[in-house]
């Protein structure tokens, strides 16, 4: 794996997160999935669950209440119905 994944997490009220990351795991309606740099393009609906962002040894988690994920040549964009960072 080389490079970084351009990732954006957007909720209706604001952009929650934007940056270059190593990996993102998300709760798809057909099962959890992970996205790394260079992933094949796809689009899916999200179910309620947790998005995990990996940046080196750091990990950030966000609770989401549905939405959509779009992976393309530019990176991963998640449009969440609701999203908030888990701080525990």
Number of helical stretches of at least 4 residues: 0
Mass-distribution shape: globular
Taking pLDDT < 50 over at least 5 consecutive residues as the criterion, the unreliable ranges are none
Assembly of the depicted chains: single chain
Beta-strand percentage range? over 45%
Largest sheet geometry: 8 strands, mixed
Describe this structure in words.
22% of the residues are buried. By secondary structure, this protein is an all-beta fold. It is built from no helices and 8 strands. Strands 1, 2, 3, 4, 5, 6, 7 and 8 form an 8-stranded mixed β-sheet that branches. The model has no long low-confidence stretch (mean pLDDT 95).
Task: Present the secondary structure layout.
Blueprint: E1 5-11, E2 14-21, E3 23-28, E4 31-35, E5 42-55, E6 58-72, E7 75-80, E8 83-86
Parallel strand pairs: 1-7
Antiparallel strand pairs: 1-2, 3-4, 3-5, 5-6, 6-7, 6-8
Write a brief structural summary.
With 88 residues, the chain is mostly beta strands. The protein contains no helices and eight strands.
Relevant terms:
88 residues; mainly beta; eight-stranded mixed sheet
């Amino acid at each position: 794996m080389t490079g970084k994944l351009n990732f954006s997490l957007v909720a209706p009220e604001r952009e929650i997160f934007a940056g270059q990351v190593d990996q993102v795991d998300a709760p798809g309606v057909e099962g959890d999935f992970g996205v790394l740099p260079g992933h094949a393009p796809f689009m899916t609906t999200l179910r309620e669950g947790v998005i995990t962002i990996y940046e080196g040894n750091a990990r950030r988690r966000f609770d989401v209440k549905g939405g959509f994920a779009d992976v393309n040549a530019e990176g991963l964009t998640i449009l969440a119905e609701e999203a908030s960072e888990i701080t525990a």
